[in-house]
Amino acid sequence: MNKVIIAFCEGDHDIAVLSKLLSVYGYSPYRKKVKDFPNPLNQLYINILSENIIEDSEFKFQRGNKYIPFVALSKDEILVIFHNLGGDGNILNGSTTSIIDKYVELNDEALRKVNKYEEINFRFLYFLDADDVGVENRLTEVKNLLGLDRIEHHKIHSKDLFEVGCYVFHDRSNRSKNGKLEDLLLALMKPNNDQVFNQSIKFVNDNILDSNRQKKYVCGYEAEDRYTGSIQFKKEKSIISIAGQLQFSGSNNSVIIANSDYIQTDDIKANDCCNDIMKLF
């Protein structure tokens, strides 16, 4: 495969949505073992994984190494690799540029001659929520991060040794172009499932908890029980989760997005935002 698309995402939900979109257009999961990935990607990942010092690891819930893909899909000679960065801060703080460097270094001419592989056409895609910042400001952040002269929404630009593109999830009905991934999800899910989602919305609105109870609760031993950290409640995520429990009990939103018939092929093909996203691939 001589075309590799690297997608930087904020989290699992983004990857679930994008994977579902790609599946509609003929992409399938790339389930090969690390050693069986195309050369030189296989050696890159093996080298990174071998740097892990097992005895320094801790038993805890944790994100993997940012340099190791979260999931991959393929179609013909195109390989799409998703990196889960765990939030917009990790995408925009320089983590992605170090990942880009590792991939682009593979195209070093001397390295290619020694290991006998063709030059790889790399494309790096950024997927971010607009949040309250807005689409244009997000694009500016990516432009500044990569040192680009300009970047346009859902369009591909060339930079030195690779291509780059960006899509910012937003509420299309919002003139300020603020919003997030869940605005797209609800636009896809709700129209053909109005009753379920209207009831989910009503349930959430009727049962909003005190803001303190929307934080992490820690049971004490030597200290008193307490609430800690920031508010974790996100209304739209909760609405999707409640509707999804009617199909996949106990599943998180990533599983619901991936497997629910709330989003069908016709929904994706008729949605302008989905069509814009697909222009990047």
- Please write the CATH class name of the largest domain: Alpha Beta
Q: What's the Cα radius of gyration?
A: 21 Å
Shape: globular
Mean pLDDT: 94
Number of domains: 2
CATH hierarchy: architecture of the largest domain: 3-Layer(aba) Sandwich
Q: DSSP helix count?
A: 11
Strand sequence of the main sheet, in spatial order? 2-3-4-1-5-7-6
Which H/E pattern describes the elements? EHEHEEHHEHEEHHEEHHHH
Helicity, as a percent range = 25-40%
Q: How many beta-strand elements?
A: 9
> What structural class do helix, strand and pairing data support?
alpha/beta
- The name CATH uses for the topology of the largest domain is Rossmann fold
List keywords for this structure.
single chain; 281 residues; alpha/beta; Rossmann fold; 2 domains; seven-stranded mixed β-sheet; two-stranded antiparallel ribbon; 40% helix
Task: Give a brief rundown of this model.
The chain has 281 residues and is an alpha/beta fold. Helix content is 40%, strand content 17%. The strands form 2 sheets. Strands 2-3-4-1-5-7-6 form a 7-stranded mixed beta sheet, sandwiched between helices.
Describe this structure in words.
It is a single chain. The chain is of the alpha/beta class and 281 residues long. The protein has 2 domains: 3-178 and 274-278, PH0156-like domains (Rossmann fold, 3-Layer(aba) Sandwich); 182-270, no CATH class. The chain is built from 11 helices and 9 strands. The strands form 2 sheets. Strands 2-3-4-1-5-7-6 form a 7-stranded mixed beta sheet, with helices on both faces. The radius of gyration is 21 Å and the shape is globular.
